[in-house]
Amino acid sequence: MTLTASSTLMISMGLPVLGALLVVLLGRWPNLRDSTLFGVAVVTFGFVVRTVSGAQAGEFAEATLVRVMPGLSLSYHVEPLGILFALVASGLWIVVTPYAVGYMRGHHEENQTRFFACFALAIGGALSVAFASNLFTLFVGYEFLTLSTYPLVTHHGTEKAMKAGRVYLGILLTTSICFLLSGILVVYHLTGTVEFQLGGILRGVVESGRISHFQLGLLLALFAFGAGKAALMPFHRWLPNAMVAPTPVSALLHAVAVVKAGVFTITKVVVYVFGVELLAETGASVWLTWVAAATILIASTIAITKDNLKERLAYSTISQLSYIVLGAALAHSLGIIGGGMHIAMHAVGKITLFFCAGAIMVGAHKTEISTMDGIGRRMPFTMFAFLLGSVAIIGLPPTGGAWSKWYLALGAASSDQVVMMVVLMISSLLSIAYLMPVVARAFFRPPPADEHHGEHHGHGEHHGHDDHHGHHHDAVEVAVLRAYPEEGHAEAQERYAGAMLPFGRFAPGWTPAEIQEAPLLCVVPLVLTGLGCVGLFVYADRIYALLLPLTAG
Fold first, then answer.
1. How far is Cα 107 from Cα 103, in angstroms, rounded to an integer?
2. In three state form, how does the secondary structure of 442-487 look?
3. What pLDDT score was predicted for residue 104?
4. Could you tell me how far CA 27 lies from the centroid of its own chain?
5. Residue 458's closest CA among 449, 468, 448, 447?
């Protein structure tokens, strides 16, 4: 039986919901539950890729789930920006799943079945947003994503977590209902449709004089601030507050689904509702470039002041999201391409950083940057991945972030927005200021005097987990001995040291016995995403080619 393009599209969005149901049914058998969820993640990505392949072959899938009333339906279609977002969400779900398993078990978290079920539903919501063919469908998927992630934010059930959940729901629901929904109703009133159309649907309304250029800017404001997940200031407080959630949730919020749904919404509305050319002609988006620029600089400055690693990364995310908003607000094809590319580049870079933050918490029980001196000796793979993720966020070769920021700068230059080019450069310098000190502490400062070689500091519920750490390096050393049986133990240990940590020569006194990484399920995903930052540098041309049709309108 051959699946049609429409069937493939609907299955790709339905699989995460099925995964959530299977997680609940298999909750009594954790290993089977988690393995099944990983399998569903892989299959979901496969169907998304198949949808993309069909689009490249000229089969642009369209499907209608429910017709609410004439001219209003829950409908889905495939287009370049949605394809990119869907690939990011479903692709990173594959690496997040084993990481989340390792983290949740290593941290002995409770209510893991509920956690993984809501996680799967959130991915389904993200895919619904990605493939939405009209504003109504996008709004439904957007709200579903908010509600499905609320239990994740409040997972711990503490007073702090519940307060963070109230802020989360309060800001995101208030902005979406008061602003985003109002914007959708205004568009429907003016045009009689909410369908996305390349080049926009508002030109006729503006040319007929039914809405002025100033009013067009106000309408854009309803969408920009209505997409509260984009964390534009002053509607950003929910993001740092949500850091009380487990680190896999932080990765979901900051890289995979939630915040990307916000900036995706703004970019899609600019391209398919307003039209890039109309915004450029009317100047209705100029104000948004300044709001985005202010958010970029203020959030970056605040990030420097935070000692808690997750809080620092949270403000980094607020700053980086506004790169994408800025790309859309420039109202230039290069800005749209740069912003679209940054959706992918930032996702992989930031998920790497949050993976590392979680691994440090599980493996070393550290959350404050000031306590991470010399941690690179203890967790070399984690901190090298952190270095790669940092370079990607800063926007330097050989990582994908260099290309997205390059096209954003070109968009600013082509729009005669020299000030915005300066903002981008200053922001990169600020990114160096809040990310590279973490790397410098890890590799170039000695560990505190009270941390002895090979000694573990876990207590209470972490004790059993810590006992597991000491066997990682032993296993590798045994493998080296078996590979070189003719060598003695001392020679094998020397060979092992050279293979495990080439930069160990910069840390005098380092020995292989110091390596105490987090569980393998935590370390492997962060290494893969760290390498993915480099891979995106090599394959950036494919993302450019994917987004290029957006400039045709």
1. 6
2. HHHCCCCCCCCCCCCCCCHHHHHHHHHHHHHHHHHHHHHHHHCCCC
3. 84
4. 27
5. 468
Asked whether the beta carbons of 533 and 527 are under 8 A apart, the reply is: no
Helix/strand/coil for 238? helix
Q: Are 98 and 266 in contact (CB under 8 A)?
A: no
Q: Is the pLDDT of residue 471 over 60?
A: no
Report how far apart, in Å, the C-alpha atoms of 418 and of each of 216, 322, 427, 430, 476 are: 24, 17, 14, 19, 53
Q: Please, where are the H alpha helices in 306-332?
A: 309-329
Task: Say yes or no to pLDDT of 256 above 60.
Answer: yes
Confirm if 197 and 281 have CB atoms less than 8 A apart: no
Is the overall model pTM greater than 0.85, yes or no? yes
DSSP 3-state of 285: coil
Cα–Cα dist 402/376, whole Å? 25
- Token reading at 415: 């729009």
Q: Report whether pLDDT(501) > 70.
A: no
* pLDDT value at residue 485: 52
Interval 180-204 mean pLDDT: 93
Measured CA to CA, the distance from residue 512 to residue 493 in angstroms comes to: 8
- Cis peptide upstream of residue 485 (ω within 30 degrees of 0): no
Report the C-alpha gap between 267 and 553 in whole angstroms.
14
Q: How confident is the model at residue 427 (pLDDT cuts 50, 70, 90)?
A: very high
CB atoms within 10 A of CB 419: 12
Which pair of structure tokens corresponds to residue 367? 């959350």
What would the DSSP string read from start to end of 375-388? HHHHSHHHHHHHHH
Positive or negative torsion for Cα 92, 97, 99, 104:
positive
Give per-residue pLDDT as tens, 40-79. 999 999 999 988 877 766 667 788 888 888 778 899 999 9
pLDDT band at residue 465 using 50, 70 and 90 as cut-offs: very low
Start-to-end CA span in the chain (Å): 37
Distances (CA, A) of 61 to 9, 79, 264: 7, 9, 20
CB 518 within 8 A of CB 104: no
- Rounded to the nearest 5°, which phi and psi values hold at 221? -65, -35
Which residue type sits at 132? A
Q: Grade residue 491 by pLDDT with cuts at 50, 70 and 90.
A: low
Spatial distance between the Cα atoms of 64 and 60, rounded to a whole number of angstroms? 14
CA 358, CA 349: separation in Å to the nearest integer? 15
Under 8 Å CB-to-CB from 163, ≥6 apart: which residues? 241
Predicted pLDDT at 480: 42
Does residue 22 have a pLDDT over 70? Answer: yes
At residue 453, does pLDDT exceed 90?
no
Q: Cβ–Cβ contacts within 10 Å for residue 464, how many?
A: 10
Q: 62-69 and 72-77 as β-strands: parallel, antiparallel, unpaired?
A: antiparallel
Q: Which two tokens stand for residue 324?
A: 């994408």
What's the rounded Cα separation, in Å, for the pair 184 and 141? 14
